[in-house]
Structure prediction request, 151 residues.
Amino acid sequence: MKIVSKEEVEKVLVDILSTSDNNIIVHEDDVNILTSDKELLAMSVAQRSGSNSARETINSAVLDFQKKDLLLTQADSILVYFQVHSNYDVMSLSDAMEIIYSIFKDVYVLNEADILFGIACDDSLENDYVKTTMFMGYSKQKKLEYVNNLM
Prediction:
């Protein structure tokens, strides 16, 4: 997990999309939702191969943030980008996103976080490989409780 700037977020997304042929692209407005008026932007990258690789990468990214006391429930925007082979089971990606949605299910009633995701397909990857890049944006308007050494 590392703290990133808006420019770094944009660069990472351009890099992801430039290596892929078939994409479910996150629109520029979505990136603005993630980055506008944020006190803190953070990113985690996880990669795995195997039958549960999508769920494992999401769990790994969530744990990465939690190790630094950055809780998903404090974020007001989350962007998840999956890089997979075009033959990868898309339902597995949807199932993995349920981990994120379930974290927020009982926490927010009216002020739900913006949760966005995209998929980049790269046929040079193995069929069961998933690389997940997760960005989280923390608003200036919310009280953040994060470790001081992150800044």
